[in-house]
Design goal:
EC 4.3.2.9; lyase; gamma-glutamylcyclotransferase; GGCT-like; about 140 residues; about 30% helix; 4 helices; alpha+beta; two-stranded antiparallel sheet; G-Glutamylcylcotransferase; Hypothetical upf0131 protein ytfp
Length: about 140
């Protein structure tokens, strides 16, 4: 019951120079969000939550029910943007490439990764504001 969108939020300048991924509730049966479930120990989960939702955090913690392809379900935590601006925005090509690469690396369905590849980006050609070390820390 969710949809992947790309949003901006008030008073936040993305180091990616474009909109960032977000999930929003959807009543459209054709909408779905594929992803990966990660299990963290309590200390790591608390640190991640604090980093993303703290005083400077741009996300809020939500609970979602994830449905596997075989219809099993599991309750999970996820994050959604706090106070996103109305309407969808465009991600930078660099950010979109990272999202697509992650989906492919984690083995998400080809139909879904192809859908991600069709997202229209904002054509940002300049550098992004993350250094190589920060980008390397985004992978695990």
């Amino acid at each position: 019951n969710y949809k992947l969108v790309f949003n901006d939020i008030v008073d936040y300048v993305s180091p990616w120079h474009g909109a960032i991924a977000n999930i929003i509730p959807s009543s459209n049966d054709d909408d779905d969000v594929w992803g990966v479930i990660h299990e963290f120990d309590k200390q790591t989960a608390e640190r991640l939550t604090k980093n993303l939702t703290g005083s400077n955090g741009i996300y809020q913690l939500i609970r979602v029910t994830v449905k596997y392809p075989d219809n099993r379900t599991v309750d999970c935590s996820s994050f959604e943007l706090r106070n996103p601006l109305p309407g969808e925005r465009r991600p930078s090509p660099q950010y979109l490439s990272m999202v697509v690469a992650g989906a492919m690396q984690k083995g998400l369905p080809e139909e879904y990764t192809n859908k991600l590849k069709r997202v229209v980006h904002n054509s940002h050609e300049g550098p992004i504001s993350l250094d190589d070390k920060a980008i390397g820390e985004l992978t695990y």
